[in-house]
Amino acid sequence: MSHDLHESLRDNVRILGDSLGRTIADDLGPGFVDRIETIRGFAKRGRQGEDGSQRELIEYLRKLPDRDLLPVTRAFNQFLNLANIAEQHYRSRFRRVEDYKPGSQPVLSELLERARGAGHSPRKLVETLAGMRVELVLTAHPTEVIRRTLIQKYDAIDDCLSTIESSGDYPERGVRAQGRLEELISQAWHTDEIRHERPTPVDEAKWGFAVIENSLWQAVPDFHRDLDNLLLDTAGERLPLDAAPIRFASWMGGDRDGNPNVTAKVTREVLLLGRWMAADLYLRDLEQLKAELSMWKANSALKAEVGDVAEPYRELLKRLSSRVEATRDWAKAELDGRSYEGGPIIETRDQLYAPLLACYRSLCDVGLDTIANGVLLDTLRRVAVFGVTLTKLDLRQEASRHAQVMEELTHGLAFGHYRDWSEAQRQEFLLTELASRRPLIPRRWECSAESREVIDTFRVIASEHREALGTYIISMAAQPSDVLAVALLMKEVGGTVSLPIAPLFETLDDLDHAGEVIDHLLALPGYRALAGDSQEVMIGYSDSAKDAGQLAAAWAQYRAQETLVEVCKRHGVDLTLFHGRGGTVGRGGGPAHAAILSQPPGSVNGSLRVTEQGEMIRFKFGQPEIALRSMEIYACAVLEASLLPPPAPKTEWREEMDRLAEVAHGAYVGVVREDPDFVPYFRSVTPEGALGRLPLGSRPTKRRQDGGVETLRAIPWIFAWTQIRLMLPAWLGSGEAFSQRLEEEGGLEVLREMRDQWPFFGTYLDMLEMLLAKADVGIAAYYEHRLIDEPALKALGERLRTRFGRLHEALLQVLDQQELLERTPLIRQAIEVRNPYIDPLHGLQAELLQRNRDADGAISADLSRALMVTMAGIAAGLRNTG
């Protein structure tokens, strides 16, 4: 890889940029394009260090008339989105999905050879892959700033680039594709990039299903076919037919934590939509199979099933199609509120799988293996992964909502006040009721609307097949009673359906006590009888980092996982860890391969759940080729962590991390919690106040509408700091920790030893390096200059930038580098290419924020839209925003 952007990537950026320029010239005239070029020129020269260029850029932007502000912001926003398309296209072609060091892109074939070299037999490799349970949980967190209608146009633009690149011998194809490209870019330019209304939870679920339909439906069988071929080469056998190493779950329509828009009715609707979409997709598969499986040779089992017919496979598939079509009709009738009057429907995975398996076995028995292992095998693989619901739907609710139900129940039944009881009293009550055969909840119970909604959610669980649902997650869990309360409600209202219950530990204190809580829980015979020999625990990355700072949170997460592994091993329980990661470093984001291999040894034992959030779903799974590579990365990482786990950290490294985390936590809290100027500074210098008007997701930006920063969700908290390029949540405190250690004897040596020999610490430093490279304290200083007058707030800003500089110096010293991203030139080049297009958006955003404040929030609709476009453009330029 050369230090310049790859030639094909540069060419595609130019093709798309030139086309956008022509589109803008057609709409607004060549003079306007010249204006855009002038702004870009100032920004580029400013980045190259030319004196006065940054000042000229700011002065030019401030003199722009109001009528030009919206089209200027739109032009830079569109270019950044097109640059992302070019980069995504490049990654797809050259198997580069993750931003990471050269040579660290995992390849499954190489990993299998390494595993064999380490003494693992071919049979062990097949068994490990067949038994692997990696579940990627698609969530609708509000960081996807691009409208679905534009995403569809961008996907079509990507197709045009592929056609242009492959048209060497057929130039007329290239000409046609170029014409289509111009048309699509013109369509995008003339489409409003900002939604006028927030998406509903159902809209979000439809967006998730669209990713499956347009990308994963093809990528999943391709992934299994590649895996099959690889195992045949290395182990001499295929992956079992029903193996599904990677599966998909969803929170879209099930995550009610702090989102009043997700109701029991919504959850029911989303489950029905999944059934409808699955039936519709399988019908397309079955039509192809009926067209292709025209053979007459069949085994006796199939002949006995369909009778003496000329085309036995078509006969069986015809019958199956009728049931799948009936299933689609049933789901549609339920969605429309009509009664269904058709024939029997498909209700379980096995009802769909068994007839297809009968066809497969028959073809193999009569020597038609090649046909069996064609499109029929692809459909079998889809059924193994997607079932009849496309995804399993998780449900998430805050612990306090279950406690409220218990309080109303105990008070109403004259048992006392649940909220006033000690933890021991709560556990005794809940365990007694779990063991009791009599119902606890009266048939005609009068309760609050909030408690009724909780009860109605459990009624939805009771009405569903178990395989349609995933895990019940309890946010803000802190005690065993939080889990027992859900178990009791499931028993009382959930009928025969019993879901795994996963407490989510997300504050620093909760992470520190996670092991104790699970130890206590598993020691309770009443709970153990329900849970059996498996337990799922969710680790929260977003709120712990917001609560404690990134360094202290990362170490708390690591320690919590170590303790949970040890506790579950002692109890003879299989632990599945569920990682609630976001897209950004500040929310646990980063390359999946490195993140998984940096977990404690034993914490990834063939099973893993992880959230894929917001815009990262599109970046990792939005196109079949990239989705294929993303799945390979997850399979590689989990296989490696299971068979070739990293070494346990040395005792002295743990002691070092304890000290570093303590210093970092103290520094972070000293600013965020204890400095009286911090909250006013945050609200003044970031667009946090305007973020609520950006219709990103269905969830409110705050858990409560009163209160300060502590009530703000982790996503808008990170998003706001990212917009001004200070990225504060992901680094504040780290500078003090590293600088202090480097001043002490032996500090540099031990930090470099940890960097080289401990994947957890090395990965943390890599993520910090990438984050600092995307940050820009000069831009943050300009926001401050434009938006803040109070001397005390300006002084705080100066102190924060000084802290950033101290961390920058310390990190380079530990990494033994002269500049950031020395070893990852592709990332550095990608950031440098984008900066001249992002910088004007920062200048325009600061200007629009000030005009908005001057007008007391009453700026024109066009200027308000321009402000939102700057947010979307900066988010697009920086990619992982929240």
UniProtKB/TrEMBL annotation:
Keywords: Carbon dioxide fixation, Lyase, Magnesium, Pyruvate. It comes from Halomonas daqiaonensis. Coiled coil: none annotated. Forms oxaloacetate, a four-carbon dicarboxylic acid source for the tricarboxylic acid cycle. It comes from the Bacteria. GO terms for biological process: carbon fixation; oxaloacetate metabolic process; tricarboxylic acid cycle. Its cofactor is Mg(2+). This is Phosphoenolpyruvate carboxylase. The keyword Magnesium applies. The active site is at H141, K546. InterPro entries: PEP_COase, PEP_COase_bac/pln-type, PEP_COase_Lys_AS, PEPCASE_His_AS, Pyrv/PenolPyrv_kinase-like_dom. GO terms for cellular component: cytosol. GO terms for molecular function: magnesium ion binding; phosphoenolpyruvate carboxylase activity. Its EC number is 4.1.1.31. Homotetramer. It catalyses: oxaloacetate + phosphate = phosphoenolpyruvate + hydrogencarbonate. Belongs to the PEPCase type 1 family. The keyword Cell cycle does not apply.
